[in-house]
Design brief:
The protein is of the alpha/beta class. 24% of the residues lie in helices and 25% in strands. The strands form three sheets. Strands 3, 4, 5, 6, 7, 14 and 15 form a seven-stranded mixed β-sheet that branches. Strands 10-9-8-11-12-13 form a six-stranded parallel β-sheet, sandwiched between helices. The protein has a two-stranded antiparallel ribbon with strand order 1-2. Strand 11, helix 6 and strand 12 form a beta-alpha-beta unit. Helix 2 crosses helix 8. The longest helix is centred in the middle third of the chain and has 13 residues. The protein is globular. The two termini are 17 Å apart.
């Protein structure tokens, strides 16, 4: 049987168990030109909260009753004359939170579990890694010797952003929640420093760690942290708006920055970033990131939980901070 997590109610504020319904249906059959994929892992990302909202965005909102949207990686177990995929191939795509899917393969690509563990293909070598790489190199236009500030530094995107900036010869300061995460960011990932926003005076630590200001702020959280970062911009600084996890569950209006005139004073820029704009360059990004991983220059960490029935509580780890690196849910055996 095929367990599927259906999206059944648009949440107001935080999503809870009533947002989804776990149902069991027959395993589909691959029709002519299709493959049947046994899903092994699904990706949990902060962007999921935005996908649940009704309204204009960079991607169509999910429909009530549809399978919960998610990146995924799995194995082809049946192929009905598919031109590109055969039984035994491992593939990644957006199959959603379900154990099996029959598909024509559009939007899927092959991955090699011998080169990297499967969860890595929905983490560092998947959407989060591509977001980090193209966000810091293309949108932020990173230059050697610059000072880079990264929020959500222990997360799937922020951890890669900071490491790429270090590889490119920059000073990198992270922001994370809790002493353990900050220690991980500095000792394991190689950031120059990390500010604990839960237990430290963020504005004072900004001045301490970035006395001459910052050239790039890569923002994953929004809210008060963004406002403080804007006050520390240098001339011609760049702010990349990748996410705003502090605002996603608001029941009131999103809190915007009051220090935005710093952009004018410093002739700086603030640019939104959506990874799908770089879809035709994913292979290029994965090759570069994979090469750094093979050389030991880039570390990848996946926080893996088990059981499709545990999706709601695992999803909420995105917002409680009870995770490190990329959050992944295992829904079938490898």
């Amino acid at each position: 049987m095929n367990k599927q997590l259906l999206f059944v109610k648009r949440p107001t504020g935080e999503a809870d168990a009533s947002t989804w319904s776990l149902e069991t249906n027959e395993i589909p059959t691959a029709e002519e030109g299709q493959v049947l994929i046994e899903q092994h892992y699904v990706s949990l990302d902060p962007a999921m909260r935005g996908w649940m909202n009704e309204g204009k965005s960079y991607i169509e909102p999910m429909e009530i009753g549809s399978v919960m949207r998610a990146g995924s990686v799995g194995k082809v177990i049946e192929s009905n004359n598919h031109p590109n995929f055969k039984v035994g191939d491992y593939v990644a795509g957006y199959a959603g939170v379900q154990q099996y899917i029959a598909t024509d393969g559009k939007g899927y690509y092959k991955v090699d579990p011998k080169l990297a563990p499967l969860p890595t293909y929905i983490g560092t070598l998947g959407m989060p890694g591509m977001t980090a790489y193209f966000g810091i190199t293309e949108v932020a236009k990173l230059k050697e010797g610059e000072t880079v500030l990264v929020s959500g530094a222990a997360g799937a995107v922020g951890s890669i952003v900071g490491q790429v900036a270090k590889i490119k010869g920059c000073k990198v300061v992270g922001i994370a929640g809790g002493a353990d995460k900050c220690k991980y960011v500095v000792d394991e990932l190689g950031f120059d420093a990390c500010i604990d926003y839960k237990n430290e005076d963020v504005a004072a630590r900004f001045k301490e760690e970035c006395p001459k200001g910052i050239d790039i702020y890569f923002d994953n959280v929004g809210g008060d942290i963004l406002d403080i970062a804007l006050s520390r911009l240098r001339l011609h600084a760049r702010v990349v708006i990748c996410g705003a996890i502090s605002q996603y569950n608001n029941k009131t209006n999103v809190k915007g920055p009051s220090n935005y005139l710093s952009l004018l004073v410093n002739r700086a820029s603030m640019t939104g970033m959506v990874v799908f704009d770089y879809a035709d360059r994913y292979a290029e990004g994965a090759k570069i990131l994979g090469g750094w991983m093979a050389q030991g220059k880039l570390k990848s960490r996946e926080d893996v939980y088990k059981g499709i029935e545990n999706f709601p509580e695992t999803y909420n780890r995105l917002f409680s901070g009870e995770k490190m690196g990329k959050l992944v849910l295992k829904i079938n055996e490898d």
